[in-house]
Write a structure and sequence with these properties.
heterodimer; A: alpha+beta; Translation Initiation Factor IF3; 4-stranded mixed β-sheet; 2 helices; 37% strand; B: alpha/beta; Hypothetical Protein Ychn, Chain: A; 5-stranded parallel β-sheet; 5 strands; 16% strand
Chain lengths: 75, 159
Amino acid sequence: MKTVRLDITKDHCPMTFVKTKLELEKLEKGDILEVILKEGEPLENVPKTVIEQGNKVLEIKKLQDNIHMVIIERG
Amino acid sequence: MNNKKKISIVLFSGDFDKAIAAFTIASGAAAVNYEVNLFFTFWGLNVLKKTKGRSAIGKGFLARTFNFLMGGFKNLPLSRLNFAGISPKLLTGLMKKRNVATLQELINAAIQLNVNLYACEMSINILGLKKEDFIPEVKEILGVAKFLNLSEGGEIIFI
């Protein structure tokens, strides 16, 4: 089981969830993806779309103002 | 997975900005697990030509002249304020500066996410082109009947 980190704080729609999806595809079931993202569109959509596709969101941590980390377990 | 949501986009336009719209929806939808079909017809085919610049491809003098004038990926004009082709380049620069995906990045993402690219048989015939004149990711050349078949049960967008 491995843990990978993805920073999409500089990206915008649709690349925020496109990059998340492509990164998740590289992982295997049970692997962890830590996505660092901004508030607004990314924070609203990334966890939602990830869950819809059968993955688990383990935790959403606030790292600093406007920056969050979503910890995803590949389903 | 037969109940997978589906969206089919017809790209008739060969405008730079409209191609961005088509590929934004396509890659976004594919990223949230939609089955995505992109059907390119007439001007839209310019996005998919293998030769990126102006090139006299095709069969016959008229077709060759027309293909040269239509251009390819690098000549896609902005639908307004094109200013002889300067605007698409300026806009791509702005998109990079603002960290928004460029058209090429959106196309790459769409391909990685297995968006299906189809080209219109009838327009290809008019333009004297063949499958080899397009990027290899083009899955098939097909007509309206097959397109309707593929898009059945999903949304259709015409751009």
